[in-house]
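User: Could you write out the 3D structure of this protein bound to S-adenosylmethionine? I've included everything you need below.
Assistant: Certainly. Input first, then the structure.
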Amino acid sequence: MVGRTLDLVADLSVTELWNTEASVFDDEPHHSLEGDEIRSAWWDVMEAVLPGPPSVVADLGCGTGSMTVLLAQRGCDVIGLDVSPRMLDRARAKAQRYVVPARFLAGDAAAPGLRASSFDVVLTRHVLWALPDPTAVLARWFDLLAPGGRLVLVEGRWHTGAGIDSDDLRQIVERTGVTVEVTPLDDPLLWGHPITDSRYVLTAIT
Ligand SMILES: C[S@@+](CC[C@H](N)C(=O)[O-])C[C@H]1O[C@@H](n2cnc3c(N)ncnc32)[C@H](O)[C@@H]1O
């Protein structure tokens, strides 16, 4: 499990760590999102929180591009950004395989350097919890949003002890004065198995 690996491999840089993870990352069903059932389950989650295609979306910390490609398949204009070149190699290959026009960039999700006020949605899945200074990071992500845009954060507090509680994240995001909705993600179809820990999507609407 990645959270545990992070604890054990403190001497590796974040980039090296995720480069090492890249070859096995998609072994988890909810990472690869391969198969109609799981794709449809994740699309249902996204459809409920996205403003609706054609949305311009930044998927920060996109990993192997599974969410990027899923959204591009459904008509969104998506840029995936990640710090790990090996993850991005896989993301580009996935976009080719699904024949979708997603774009991918190398960069730091904490300070993405993308154009301000130009995205309908900033999406992250399982990224914010591991970034230092989430308050400062959130402020930079809000800057990327066009008027009326939204931040969609898929996070959890996993059985490993890693992650961030939904109440804690709600408090941090609400301090910015936006409207926040939290939806539990406890459908086993999303994960490939039943879960006993806390997983959720938090949506902040500006
Ligand atoms: C748990 S994976 C999630 C991948 C993807 N969001 C998903 O849900 O399948 C975390 C990803 O965030 C990336 N990452 C971690 N820190 C980052 C940073 N500071 N900037 C950009 N990407 C980062 C890692 O390279 C990895 O691909």
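The first helix runs from residue 2 to 8.
User: Perfect, thank you.
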